[in-house]
Amino acid sequence: MKKFIVELKRRRLLQTLLVYITFAWLVLQVVGVMGSMIPVDPLLGKITLLVLVCALPVAAFLSWHFDVTTQGITRTPSLEEEASLNIQPFGTKNWLLLALLVSVCSVIGSQYFTVIKSQYLAEQSRLAAIQKADSIAVLPFVDQSAQKDQGYLALGVSEEITSLLGRSEGFRVMASRSSQILVEKGFSPIEIGQRLDVATVLTGSLQATDQRLKIRVELIDSASGKTLWTESFMRELKDVFAIESEIGRAVVNLLQDKFLVAGDFSSLSATNSTDAYVLYLKGREAYRKQTTESMQSARKLFEQAVALDPEYAKGYVGLADTLVLLAEGGTRFGVLKTDIAATLAQQNIDKALSRQPQMAEAYAVQGYIYFMLDDFDRALTEYAKAIELNPSLAIAYMWQSLTFNTLQQFDEAISAQQKAQALDPLFLTSTYNLGMLLSWRGRYEEAETIFKQLMLDFPDSTFPHEGLADMYFSRGDFVGAIREGKLAAELSPDNQDLAYKLLGPLSQLGLTDILKKKTSDPFWEATLLIFEKKYEELFKKMAFEVAANPDDYWVAFEAGWYHALFGNRKTAQQLLTEKLTLIDETEMFGMPYCSPAIEVAWAEKSLGNQVQAFNLISKCKTLLNEQLDASIIYSELYYLSARIYALEGKPEDAVKALSAAINKGWREWWTQYDPLLSSLQNEPEFQMLIAFLEQDLTRQRSEAQKLFEENP
Questions:
Q1: Is 309 helix (H, G, I), strand (E, B) or coil?
Q2: Dihedral (C-alpha) 632, 634, 637, 639: value to the nearest 10 degrees?
Q3: N or C: which terminal CB in the chain sees fewer CB atoms within 10 Å?
Q4: What is the pLDDT of residues 313-349, one digit of tens each?
Q5: Distances (CA, A) of 219 to 101, 178, 194, 245
């Protein structure tokens, strides 16, 4: 060993290696500077380092045998050679050893280069995938508490991160509701990402112990299943909003190739009171149950949250949202009067916006308040603000669609509802609404696809069957409507509204025996008398109803209409016209039939009152054209067009319009008796259309009877 150390010093190997390392460092610095100044292969630095490392053993070997002096490169003799003054040449043996060393270093270097290159390409592929990721779903975090009693906290944190990410421009963030439903159905994160059509999925777990909070998150590529990023956080519970902001900022920076620093992406939902935050999350848990009792409980929890922290903006929004849903109305819970609910909700929204003027959810709720008060223009303005602040806020699009539909702006309503459904595809009500909107516009194939997907996603729900039943009915497919209505009723046998869905198509097909078994409601008595051809009994009944309700125009209208179809038309004309002062002008033109105005126009024309008839027909034509221009595809509109043409004495146009109505699903059994079309009775085309209707209704009647024979 002493001899070897002496040789190292004599041959100056260490000095040579030091010089080599210094040279290598300088070369790497030059390569690094070049890479920052001119376009070079990104692998150049790694290749240079690999070559320098692999060349180190060769340099050491050559340094052992040679020395660099002022006279040039000289052979370094061994101690024996130096003592004998007989210096041997490098020799074959040394050349072979050098060749072997170079070969070994080259092979090792080549193998490492292959590994480095593959890793680099994989990294580039991963980065490319990440930078193209413009969509994400945040799954409900897993409750890892020992008692499994922190689900409200785990889900609440994931909801807050969803809301936070939704504020990022150009980034589609799926609503928490759909993710939660798929998790409950047992879908894996990758399956959820693929089902929701998002590029990435953020999963996590949470555990709170005393005032300590532990959160672990993982970002997954939906296509490959690879983990793109993972991180763990251990903080005080009061720091949860800072953690949410940090997670959101990291995800946006990673997926959108941005550089958001702390403070650029902070939570708008923060509160200084941990207890207030817990109460808020429990309120959200109750709110999600969507029952009258749970909504009242949510209201109390939100009120307690803002009482603990009067500066808690998100608490005020939650309270306002709950109050509007507790108001009266078809889709609401009916606990509060509408004006009272709107006033209370607005007071809370004002408090929220004064504290956080950039909170999208506040503007969405404010828009719904205006909608409740029939201030539709201001409602749309508020929805637009909400969407501008959070383009992924699904509920804002859904409420926007509802407002557009009320204004009969149907294209805009469908567009907004499609956006809501794309962001929250498993929100049952939203998807059902989209199906119905498409159905009303005559886009039956799209609507049918949506309802059938709903069946797969919610096999125990009556909604998809109700949607299909309504759609088939509007298409004149009464057998389909009965079949789906039966399925809906079987899923909810105590729901009388579903049982009544069968009555319409049964009456259209004249299946009176079945109709009698399904209902004893006096509403259907007149229909049964008509199909049983008990006209005398029918008119006695209606005469009694008219005498018993002298101030009700609609009773007179019903009696007049039955007389127009099967009785004395002079009596019909009198009943239709003499009590018109009992209804408002706005009630005269109910679309899509424009009824009772169009029937009154027939009566006035028959009585020789041409001016009155002309005015009513003109108004109906205006409303008809407005709806047709809006691309509404009701068969009733085309039937209205046929009636107008017939009243105007245009039989060819009337027949064409009737044909269009039938093609779009018009199947009303009373068409052949309609007095407004009496001028067409001798038209051959009209007779052919009536024959087709009779044949189709006969066919459907037979098929429907079989349905009840097979399954009463």
A1: coil
A2: 150
A3: N
A4: 999 999 999 999 999 887 788 889 999 999 999 999 9
A5: 46, 18, 14, 15
* Joined tokens for residue 102: 């170079």
- For the chain, what are the domain ranges? 2-129, 135-256, 441-532, 584-710
Distance CA 587, CA 581 (A): 11
Q: What distance in Å separates the CA atoms of residue 475 and residue 452, rounded to the nearest whole number?
A: 17
Give the residue from 606, 569, 599 showing the smallest Cα distance to 583: 599
* CATH superfamily, domain at 135-256: ABC-type transport auxiliary lipoprotein component (3.40.50.10610)
Q: Point out which residues pair with 69 in neighbouring strands.
A: 72
Measured between alpha carbons, how far is 229 from 535 in angstroms, rounded to an integer? 78
Q: Using the predicted structure, report yes or no on whether residue 238 has a pLDDT greater than 80.
A: yes
Q: What are phi and psi of 309, to 5 degrees?
A: -135, 95
DSSP conformational letter for 202: E
Beta strand 172-173 with 135-138 is parallel
Mean pLDDT in residue range 569-594: 92
Q: How many residues are present in the chain? A: 712
Which residue blocks in 407-552 are alpha helix, DSSP H? 410-423, 428-440, 444-457, 463-474, 478-491, 496-501, 503-508, 512-518, 525-531, 535-548
**Who's near 562: CB < 8 A, 6+ residues apart?**
526, 530, 538, 539, 542, 572
- Quick one: which of 352, 425, 398 has its CA closest to 135? 425
- The pLDDT of residue 557 is above 80: yes
Q: Tokens 């929250």 belong to which residue?
A: 424
Q: How many CB atoms lie within 10 A of CB 695?
A: 10
What sign does the CA torsion over 189, 190, 196, 201 have?
A: positive
Tokens found for residue 79: 């101690």
Query: Cα–Cα distance between 573 and 558 in angstroms, integer?
Result: 12
Is residue 30 exposed (0-12), middle (13-18) or buried (19+ Cβ within 10 Å)?
Answer: exposed
pLDDT at 67 over 60: yes
Q: What pLDDT score was predicted for residue 259?
A: 59
Task: Identify the residue with better confidence: 260 or 274.
Answer: 274
CA distance 638 to 654: 9
399 and 367 in contact (C-beta within 8 Å)? yes
pLDDT recorded at residue 451: 95
Other CB atoms closer than 10 Å to residue 558's CB: what's the count? 17
> How many whole angstroms from its chain centre is CA 177?
9
327 by DSSP, 3-state: which? strand
Output the six-digit token pair for 242: 């800072």
Q: What are phi and psi of 281, to 5 degrees?
A: -65, -35
> Which CATH code fits 441-532?
1.25.40.10
What whole-number distance in Å separates Cα of residue 484 and Cα of residue 448?
12
228: phi then psi, degrees, rounded to nearest 5: -90, -30
The 3-state DSSP composition of the chain as helix, strand, coil percent (nearest 5) reads 70, 5, 25
Pairing of strands 200-209, 212-221: antiparallel
CB 105 within 8 Å of CB 54: yes
- The CA distance from 140 to 160, in Å, is 11
Q: Please report the pLDDT score of residue 168 as a whole number.
A: 83
The percent of residues above 90 in pLDDT, for the chain, comes to 57
Closest CA to 596 of 658, 643, 540, 652: 643
Model pLDDT for residues 73-115, shown as the tens digit of each residue: 767 666 666 655 666 666 777 778 878 878 888 888 788 778 7
List of E strands, 210-329: 212-221, 227-236
Q: What gap in Å lies between CA 600 and CA 280, rounded to an integer?
A: 57
CA atoms within 13 A on the CB side of 24: 18
Q: Residue 622 contacts by C-beta under 8 Å, 6 or more apart in sequence?
A: none
What's the CA gap between 542 and 556, in Å, rounded?
8
Cβ(481)–Cβ(472) below 8 Å: yes
